[in-house]
Design goal:
Helix content is 0%, strand content 46%. By secondary structure, the protein is mainly β. The strands form four sheets. A four-stranded mixed sheet has the order 4-1-8-6, with no helix packed on it. The protein has a four-stranded antiparallel sheet with strand order 3-2-5-7, with no helix packed on it. The protein has a three-stranded antiparallel sheet with strand order 11-10-13, with no helix packed on it. The chain has two domains: 82 residues, Immunoglobulins (Immunoglobulin-like), CATH 2.60.40; 54 residues, no CATH class. The protein starts with 34 loop residues before the first strand and ends with a strand. The chain contains no helices and 13 strands.
């Protein structure tokens, strides 16, 4: 018994048993690929590229890369006969979808991930020596003086929705 091989296909690309030139059973596509590339891009909530994202490929192959300055990554020469999971991660960021799976991809694949920087709040209270809150005090972030808050009637202030990963110091304009 002779195993089925490419030598069993006639000039037109049709299966021809025992070298026959007539009678067709199967037609192969002219450009059949056994490898593919899995590429992609990671952007932030503004659609800007996000460099330095950890991109992990697992499944039939295991590889780790970081996105480049354009937020792009690429895994090349992967066998099409496999299962691949791509996972993204970056400190201080949350991803809408942090992984995508591709099973037996026949052609090159493009994956897109979108991240949002985590947000935090800084809040506090300004009080007199007797513990009573001081109202009407303007408080600012030392690194960003244009961002201010004013204490309420009980001396409380808050800076909501500050981007994670930055150091902030608070100062007041009252003595």
């Amino acid at each position: 018994m002779v195993p089925l091989g490419l030598d069993r296909f006639n000039e037109a690309g049709f299966f021809a048993p025992d070298g026959q030139r007539e009678g067709v059973a199967i037609m192969l596509p002219k450009a059949f690929s056994i490898v593919f590339a899995l590429a992609g891009v990671v952007t932030d909530e503004n659609g800007d590229p996000l460099p330095g994202v950890d991109v992990k490929l697992t499944g039939s192959q295991t590889v780790n890369v970081l996105t480049d300055s354009q937020g792009k990554f690429r895994f090349s020469n992967l066998p099409t006969s496999g299962s691949y999971n791509v996972t993204v991660n970056k400190h201080h960021y949350t991803f809408g979808t942090s992984s995508q799976t591709f099973i037996n991809p026949a052609t090159d694949v493009n994956a897109v991930f979108q991240a949002r920087v985590n947000r935090h709040a800084i809040s506090g209270r300004i009080v007199k020596t007797n513990g009573a809150g001081v109202s009407g005090v303007t408080v600012e972030l030392a690194q960003s003086p244009e961002i201010t808050a004013t204490t309420d009637e009980n001396g409380f202030y808050s800076f909501p929705e500050l981007a994670a990963g930055k150091t902030s110091s608070i100062r007041s304009n009252s003595s």
